[in-house]
Amino acid sequence: MKNYMPNFLIVGAAKCGTSSLHNYLNQHPDIFMPSYNARGMKVKEPRFLVKEIIKNRVHNGVWDFEEYKSLFSDVKHEKLIGESTVLYLYYYETAIKNIKHYLGNDIKIIIMLRKPVDRAFSAYLHVSRGKKENLSFEEALKIEKERLKQNPTLSPMVNYQDMGMYYKMVKSYLDNFKNVHIIFYEDFKKNTNLSVKNTFKFLNVDSNISIDTTKKHNVGGKVWRYKWLKDIFFKKSYIKVILKNLLPNKLVKNIFSKIEFLIKKRSAPMSNKIRKELLLSYTEDITKLEELLKIDLKHWKE
Q: What pLDDT is stored for residue 252 in this prediction?
């Protein structure tokens, strides 16, 4: 039996449209990307290539090479095999080393980037949906540099500000791989079909295939109406245990997802004060990225 392995990767960044792109690319008949493993666990983000850094910080992932290979065992005729792990961009040094070791130098890399200020706030809203984040955005930014050191189980996603310092990350991928495709979230959102079509061209598959891009995936922007509702939702209870034992896992997740939707509201916008401070902190890095990519990103500085 042939061992199929990825020949392309979506490496990030987080909260830049990678979940939607993953699902759109997966509709192409010549592309295979795993979404669930044999046990029904969601593996859209295997995280295997940065396992040594994040294994104790995320609730699931694929940590064994044999299991990683098994994610691609259902490949049939597909020419392009890929996976999407957004932390490969942030932990670029470890990821690049492991990509070369396990997958070789000729792999194609897809990077999605978003205005850093907006990405940071979107990431905060995403993490605060769970039980790991109970601080305000301003409070979280103030202690960002020390949080991971103090808590060895905390998700690296709380590095809201630092994850938007793209220059070194992008440069490292460009320096190490010859086939790198960069998608800007703003372009992706404005004309999704064109962005997907251009990605198909980069992957060298038929770009005229019809893809449904109407559904957006992993959309954020909502917060808990009250903290006590969040506490109740995440608290262990006999009802949850009974439901998980009686009903299929996917059905239980759908039930709680619908409940969660009903008890959340649209988030308030970021304060002007924080926005200005973040914009100032990103200016130098954005300028370096402009020079590297030879593009104008002045709208990222506004």
A: 61
